[in-house]
Amino acid sequence: MTGASAAALGLADRGLLREGFRADVTVFDPFAIAEKATYTDPHRYAVGVEHVLVNGVPVLDHGTHTGALPGRMLRRTAA
């Protein structure tokens, strides 16, 4: 699902877990995941999300933000 989206956007190093690619991974419990943000309180994390890696760097570890901000804006490459 993410590989096709990345390919459609021309993101050559994303969308698959493969050596040399940027590792963007989310580990969650499909039975516990739920959105908690609201219009009046939009900065609340979803529950059931345990780990998030962005560019291979842990951003969420056991449900707690690590303080890391390894993300960057993605731009579509020429097709």
Q: How is this structure best described in words?
A:
- The chain is mostly beta strands and 79 residues long.
- The protein has a domain at 21-69.
- It has one helix at 2-8; strands at 25-28, 49-54, 57-61, 64-65.
- The chain has a four-stranded antiparallel beta sheet, with no helix packed on it.
- A hairpin with a 2-residue loop joins strand 3 (57-61) and strand 4.
- The protein starts with a helix and ends in a 14-residue tail after the last strand.
Label this structure with key terms:
four-stranded antiparallel sheet; single chain; 79 residues; 1 helix; globular; 22% strand; mainly beta
Kindly, what is the distance between the CA atoms of the first and last residues, rounded to a whole number of angstroms?
20 Å
Mean pLDDT: 90
The strand line-up of the biggest sheet is 1-2-3-4
Structural class: mainly beta
Give the ordered list of helices and strands.
HEEEE
Poorly predicted spans: none
